[in-house]
Amino acid sequence: MKQLLLVFVGGGFGSALRFLIGKWLNSSNGGFPYGTFVVNVFGCFIIGIVIGYFSRQHLNQDQTLFLATGFCGGFTTFSAFAYENQVFLKSGDFTSFAIYTIASFIIGFLAIFLGMYLVKA
How far apart are CA 71 and CA 79, in angstroms? Predict the structure, then answer.
């Protein structure tokens, strides 16, 4: 029950922060979803740091559940990412679709590695 509560609370914080960043950075007129992009990259970076600390035994399982599964699970927005890409495709905006998808994957993976690297340094 404790672990479920940790994931629940962490997810709530992550979701609330995702909402605020989306309101701040995403345009109400459509266009490139900067808020979702920033959240996904930053979420990857945080998971990289959490995994790095956990692998070095600086975080216990409860802290990892709260931060990685809870906070990052609520914070990152793959479903929003998929929906926004569907909107690009449906409207025929293949350039934004390609840039957004490729940049999200490449920069997201790089952010994970950067987070893990910084923990080791």
Answer: 16
CA distance readout (Å), 105 to 9, 42, 90: 27, 12, 21
Q: What is the pTM of this model?
A: 0.75
Reported as type and span, the H/E element at residue 26 is none
Top mean pLDDT of 16-30, 51-65, 87-101 is at 87-101
Which H helix or E strand runs over 63? Answer: helix 61-64
Please spell the DSSP secondary structure of 83-116, one letter per residue.
HHHHHHHHHT-HHHHHHHHHHHHHHHHHHHHHHH
- DSSP code of 118? H
Q: What is the pLDDT of residues 32-53, one digit of tens each?
A: 899 999 999 999 899 888 888 8
